[in-house]
Write a structure and sequence with these properties.
mainly beta, Jelly Rolls, 7-stranded antiparallel β-sheet, 4 helices, 24 strands, about 10% helix, globular
Length: about 350
């Protein structure tokens, strides 16, 4: 009998650290380029959790499938009088009221909001312990909740449950609830006071002066941004209502920029090139977006992600309804103050919206 010669499989070559890094970057670029851009509401079911009813568009479970990772985006809808109660060590949440009237009790402070308002849960020294209430129990009350995880990771952010929503009937899992040492002892340590009568005499003291100014700023900053207080501007892209902008000096959180964008019936936005990472949530209306030449049709409560890819993205939005306006809630990480406006892709206006009229000279 002829002896069979077995062929051993050749081992995969071992990459050195530099080549492994190159390979990882190529794979990440591929994932972003091929990731999902449009998340439809109809494919995002309402789910009852211990925190209440909600739709989860983006979270750790699907980041590897999306054109943009890092966002945690959910939509709540509550007809009961309250949601669950939990804490965020670090904070960093933005909540846009989609409908109804509500109240958040955060660290024993009442924060009241209504449709069109934005609530901020900023980064604080210890934790934000809060619970959301529907002030018109029996009527819908819902929030769009945004968090950008890379910023939260930098603050050792953590969430622990304190109590469940009234409708939740599942098991209590003790590891999810607040232990006594949730906020460690060192969080409450305070050093001796450092005050300045004149300019700081060292660069280290310059940092302490900035700390003092920041704490003073936060003691006066707005945690609720009322829609009625934010004017609508007509700019090159369309009709914007800004809630958080780099130039604002009275809001409690500036890590996420946020605005709403109204597109009149049958009209379109301007066309802009920028680095991706911006999200657009359809508050109302039907239309489509063209992103790097690809059309994405959307309707109410769909979510559009602009991919983070080499060279950036070219984006334009169109209202397909000739009789009714469309409105988008837009957000992006405020990278600009640390990475610059061009963001390795350029920040360019390519076309203006029909409503834009250049200032008269």
């Amino acid at each position: 009998m002829e002896k069979m010669i077995e062929r051993s499989r050749e081992a995969e070559p071992v990459l050195d650290s530099y080549d492994a890094g190159l390979k990882w970057r190529i794979e990440m670029s591929r994932k972003r380029k091929e990731g999902k851009v449009l998340l439809r509401a109809q494919d995002t079911p309402w789910v009852l959790t211990r925190q209440g009813y909600g739709r989860k568009y983006c979270n750790t479970n699907n980041w590897d499938q999306l054109a943009v990772s890092g966002w945690t985006i959910s939509r709540t809808n509550e007809q009961n009088y309250r949601r669950g109660k939990h804490t965020h060590r670090g904070g960093g949440r933005l909540l846009f009221c989609m409908e109804g009237r509500g109240r958040t009790i955060n660290n024993n402070v009442n924060l009241d909001w209504e449709k069109g308002d934005v609530e901020l849960l900023p980064v604080t020294r210890t934790e934000n312990s809060h619970e959301h209430f529907n002030l018109d129990s029996g009527k819908p009350c819902g929030l769009l909740v945004l968090m950008f995880w890379p910023f939260m990771e930098a603050t050792a952010n953590e969430t622990r449950q304190i109590s469940n929503a009234p409708d939740w009937k599942g098991d209590r899992k003790e590891e999810l609830y607040r232990p006594q040492d949730f906020v460690p002892e060192q969080a409450y340590l305070e050093g001796y006071p450092i005050q300045f009568d004149g300019p700081p005499t060292s660069l280290l003291d310059d940092l302490f002066l900035r700390r003092n100014r920041w704490r003073d700023y936060m003691s006066r900053a707005r945690w609720i941004i009322k829609q009625k207080d934010q004017p609508v501007e007509t700019n090159r892209m369309g009709l914007y209502r800004w809630y958080i902008h780099p130039s604002f000096d009275n809001v409690a959180m500036k890590a996420i920029l946020f605005w709403t964008h109204e597109i009149p019936a049958g009209s379109c936005s301007g066309k802009q090139k920028f680095q991706g990472g911006r999200i657009h949530f359809v508050v109302e209306g039907h239309g489509y977006s063209v992103i790097n030449g690809v059309r994405y049709d959307w309707g109410p409560e769909d979510l559009i992600l602009s991919p983070v890819i080499a060279g950036g993205v070219v984006v334009q939005h169109f209202n397909a309804d000739p009789a009714h306006p469309a409105r988008l809630a837009c957000a992006e990480p405020n990278w600009y103050e640390i990475l610059g406006m061009d963001m390795a892709s350029g920040f360019e206006q390519l076309e203006d919206c029909p409503e834009w009229k250049p200032p008269q000279k």
